[in-house]
């Protein structure tokens, strides 16, 4: 059995979708949820699925990195899934979990990646630049923001009449459809 931790900073719709998908799975158990925001929507979603939640501030993540990694190892976490986690993981994580950290990003990387690029900021920029397509990228995490090996990209059309909301909906639909399947294959 593979033990996974889901890291999320926001609403947690992707996280909840994973809880549901893998609820009775015999290969993977989502054992733990980590968030950096004590007001994040993810917390209620995690509690609904009876997940253990750990809240860690940016300062603690940076200043107590080894202790936190030690804690994850004690919890026997083998896989880290970033589902809208907006802090950059310190490089020690990449060393401690080599090829065992997966991220989802709401653009076709390398476009619209890097620091400060998340959620509606990305969709707004895509629309301003009159892109005709956008999509999602699921990738392994390395030391650089949004630059690890790509596992899957899925595209969608961007229409002239699209707004941030309609584009966000299209992207969310792709994320919910593909993220669990990619993790399943990755196992
Ligand atoms: C998702 O769109 C995910 O791709 C994005 O945050 C959103 C979280 O939504 N991640 C990033 O932008 C990472 N740079 P959710 O909280 O509803 O799952």
Task: Give a verbal description of the structure.
38% of the residues lie in helices and 23% in strands. It is α/β, with parallel strands linked by helices and 187 residues long. It folds into 2 domains: 1-98, Rossmann fold; 104-187, Formyl transferase, N-terminal domain (Rossmann fold, 3-Layer(aba) Sandwich). Strands 3-2-1-4-5-6-7 form a 7-stranded mixed sheet, with helices on one face. Strand 4, helix 5 and strand 5 form a beta-alpha-beta unit. It starts with a strand and ends with a helix. The model has no long low-confidence stretch (mean pLDDT 96). Glycinamide ribonucleotide (GAR) is lined by residues 8, 10-15, 83-84, 104-106, 118-119, 175.
CATH topology of the largest domain: Rossmann fold
Number of distinct beta strands:
7
CATH architecture of the largest domain: 3-Layer(aba) Sandwich
Shape: globular
Distance between the termini: 10 Å
Strand content: 15-25%
Cofactors, ions and other ligands in the entry: glycinamide ribonucleotide
Unreliably modeled segments: none
Q: Average pLDDT value?
A: 96
What is the string of helix and strand elements? EHEHEHHEHEHEEH
- Gyration radius from CA atoms, angstroms: 16 Å
Salient structural properties:
Rossmann fold; 23% strand; seven-stranded mixed beta sheet; binds glycinamide ribonucleotide; 2 domains; 7 strands; alpha/beta
Helix-strand blueprint:
Layout: E1 2-7, H1 13-21, E2 28-35, H2 42-48, E3 52-55, H3 58-63, H4 65-74, E4 79-82, H5 91-96, E5 101-105, H6 119-128, E6 133-140, E7 150-157, H7 164-186
Helix pairs in contact: 1-7, 6-7
Bound molecules: glycinamide ribonucleotide.
């Amino acid at each position: 059995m593979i033990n996974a931790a889901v890291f999320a900073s926001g609403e947690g719709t992707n996280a909840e979708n994973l809880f549901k998908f893998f609820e009775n799975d015999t290969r993977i158990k989502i054992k733990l949820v980590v968030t950096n925001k004590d007001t994040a929507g993810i917390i209620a979603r995690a509690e609904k699925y009876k997940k253990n939640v750990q809240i860690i501030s940016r300062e603690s993540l940076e200043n107590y990195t080894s202790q936190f990694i030690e804690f994850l190892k004690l919890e026997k976490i083998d896989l880290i899934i970033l589902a809208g986690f907006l802090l950059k993981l310190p490089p020690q994580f990449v060393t401690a979990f080599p090829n065992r950290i997966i991220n989802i990003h709401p653009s076709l990387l390398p476009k619209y990646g890097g620091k400060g690029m998340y959620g509606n900021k990305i969709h707004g920029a895509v629309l301003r630049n009159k892109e005709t397509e956008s999509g999602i990228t699921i990738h392994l995490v390395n030391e650089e923001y949004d630059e690890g090996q790509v596992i899957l990209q899925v595209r969608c059309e961007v229409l002239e009449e699209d707004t941030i909301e309609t584009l966000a909906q299209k992207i969310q639909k792709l994320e919910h459809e593909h993220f669990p399947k990619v993790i399943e294959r990755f196992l």
